[in-house]
Amino acid sequence: MHLDALILSRLQFAWVIGFHILLPAFTVGLASYIALLEGIYFVTKCEIYFRISAFWTKIFAISFGMGVVSGIVMPFQFGTNWSRYADITANVLSPLFAYEGLTAFFLEASFLGVLLFGRKLVPRWAHFFSALMVASGTLLSSFWILVANSWMQTPTGYKLIDGRFFPADWLSIIFNPSFPYRFAHNVIGFYITTAFVVIGVAAYLIRRNKFVGEGRVMFSMTFWLLTILVPLQIFLGDLHGLNTLKYQPAKLAAIEAHWLPEKRAPLTLFAIPDEKNEVNHAVIDVPLLGSIILTHDSNGLVPGLKQWPADQRAPVAIPFFAFRIMVGLGLIMLTLVLVGLLLRMRHRLFETIWFLRTCQFVATIGFLTVLAGWTTTEVGRQPWTVYGLLRTADSVAPSLTGLDVILSLASYMVVYLLIFPVGIILMGRIVRNGIVQAEEKAPIEGGQPSAPVVTTPEYNS
Amino acid sequence: MTLDLVPLWALLLGAAVFFYVLLDGFDLGVGMLYAFALDRATRNLIMNSIAPVWDGNETWLVFGGLGLLAAFPLAFAIIMPAVYFPILIMLLALIFRGVAFEFLFRDAQHITFWDRAFSYGSLVATFAQGIVLGAFIQGFAVEARHFAGNTFDCFTPFSIFTGVALVFGYGLLGAGWLILKTEGVVQAAARSQGRWCFVAVIIAIGIVSLWTPLMDTDIAHRWFSWPNIAYLSPIPVATALIAFFEWHALTNPRSEMGAFIGAIGLFLISYFGIAISLFPMIIPHQLTLWQTAASPDTQIFLLVGTMFLLPIILFYSGWSYWVFRGKVRADIGYH
């Protein structure tokens, strides 16, 4: 494999976006959760919701900050490494990105300051409103970026002139065929990711027998949410798959490592794809299940990679395994949810220690699932940047040399490998310190702080 | 009838970039001045003066980049690879500066490291932006629809100089902000730092104003030929007036807003100067705004939303600043 600017740029993009996606995967759900808690507190004035909210807001501040700095990297990537893609698709995609900035980024960034620091400075309703605006910003951001990504996967509403895209129908561009499914599946996936973190933290607090009240409230609320969302997500994933079958059959063939088009196709649980010889080795198949699951018809036709010339096929092994990892993790989540439901019906949800321990252990399951899912869809889209129309190989910035990108890739790797672990460790410390009772209480007389300026950075205890 | 939206978009983008320079300029400036504060309490105060607003400020950077992509995509596609390393350095520095806000207060064992991440991150990001500015003014090699030069072309004596100049420029903005937001000893220190930055900025404006036309005969002709020199003479005059105003604000212990306003004024006039020098080129020597613009359908689609959303954004951003008005409070922010 020749280490040229193209492959290095692809690795670089995978690196920066792989890390970045972990943050919205958490902060989208958490922003909504905090808004919900603030709303309940605003209405009921029950202190417990305030304490839980203040706890998660501290964690949110760290993760959101990391999301912002890793997010700023992304639009510049389009320019520095993918300038051909930027030039060719800008007429269609650039307003979508710009609207993300205009409707979402400013909204969440401006109200974040009030959410984090303004509780004592604004009326209660304004603070709650700020939480709501931050949450709305994260959802609007998801909307626009997924519109853009979905258009790259299932492009519609465009004209192609001189090798560049021009808009023909904005509604068709925005509400392109895969968008509704990708949007729903992704946002629910984000909510599930946050929910498992909350559950894990709640389980930890309950087992430590400190802040048990708060732990139980968090656990119970969130578990109800998961009970609804996990089955829903599986259903949405299925719909998303049907859509992929229709609009991106080559991608589906790669995901299934399916070489020949086939009716009454089996479901391949495991295989070792051999791209050179266009076969699979060590295959574990379940008869008929492929057509049933992928086409909802036992006589349904499942596409095969050989329908496309070799240079129009995605790499097989990566989407194949990534997809199975995602589904496997999803089934684990479903099992947990069902077991939890059973325990709750027997009123033994908080008393079953092995279950609480399991919840703690799987707290990060959502992140792995999100990464697996995104790997499936993005690698599955190759060799295209815009499916069927623009190749990734033709998208890279022509002026870059391998050396340029080795330097930048190495820099991103070093910095991210420092910043991200530190962020996680610091968030972990907040969790270990638990839910502080005395938070933000001292009222201020005439603008003067009643406590002296005390700086008590938190030492590792 | 096809309406020519290019001038409007040039104005909008210019305004967006200017907003970024102003807003992130002062908080990067504050970050750099942070290093000169010697005790923890003062450092906390300085950081807290920008803690609630830095994120919104930095959002203008994203908007500036995306705005360039949206309005003048060919320019984006040429400029970004041409300034590959300054952008990389800027982004990495902004990462360190951005996380330092939170990490500093939660990782006391490594407080010195995060102190440095905050102040050096601010410094390096500023310097990198200055290089981008200088490289932009000098222009880029273009072939067909892409940058055709070497990735290291952007590092020239001129761009290094503008890098240093911007450091002092943001330092001046930062000092102005600190004068506004602090009192007593901290404020007095900011005034003193501001004066140093001011001197450097005035010298830099002078040098760049002469160097740019020296580099480029077209620009020299635009400024120094008759009757242009008559029409454009108010610019240096205005610059001198603003400079006098700024010096007065920086030396008057009772002036609160003056230094910040004066700094904004100096940036604004310098900005106009560059615009006058370069218009209508967006890739100097090669491509005009019109040649790099997005399709009219794209421009209209974005314009409709932008005209509606920008006032709203300015409104709630302004509200957010108003919430945190007045002098920095020791209890608002990180502690």
Q: Would you write up a description of this structure?
A:
The complex is a heterodimer of chains A (461) and B (335). Chain A has 13 helices and 8 strands. Chain A is mainly α and 461 residues long. Chain A has a two-stranded antiparallel ribbon. In chain A, strands 3-6 form a two-stranded antiparallel ribbon. Chain B has helices spanning 6-34, 40-50, 54-71, 73-82, 84-106, 111-138, 157-181, 184-215, 217-224, 228-232, 234-251, 258-278, 289-292, 296-323; strands at residues 142-143, 146-147, 281-283, 287-288. Chain B is mainly α and 335 residues long. In chain B, helix 1 packs antiparallel against helix 3 and helix 11 (234-251) packs antiparallel against helix 12 (258-278). Chain B has a two-stranded antiparallel sheet with strand order 1-2. The model of chain B has no long low-confidence stretch (mean pLDDT 94). The interface between A and B is large, with 81 and 80 residues.
What overall form of chain A do the CA principal axes indicate? globular
SS strand fraction of chain A: 5-15%
In quaternary terms, these chains amount to: heterodimer
Number of strands of chain B: 4
State the strand order across the main sheet of chain B: 1-2
Sum up the overall morphology of chain B in one term. globular
Structural class of chain A: mainly alpha
Helix and strand succession of chain A? Answer: HHHHEEHHHHEEEHEHHHEEH
Label the structural class of chain B: mainly alpha
Sketch the major β-sheet of chain B: 2 strands, antiparallel
Q: What is the terminal separation of chain B in angstroms?
A: 59 Å
Radius of gyration of chain B, CA atoms, in whole angstroms: 20 Å
Main sheet properties of chain A: 2 strands, antiparallel
Q: Largest interface, and how many residues on either side?
A: A-B, 81 and 80 residues
Runs of chain B in which pLDDT lies below 50 for 5 or more consecutive residues are none
Q: State the end-to-end distance of chain A.
A: 48 Å
Strand content of chain B: under 5%
Fraction in helix of chain A: 55-70%
Sequence stretches where pLDDT stays below 50 over 5 or more residues of chain A: 438-461
> Helix and strand string of chain B, N-terminal first?
HHHHHHEEHHHHHHEEHH
Total DSSP helices of chain A: 13
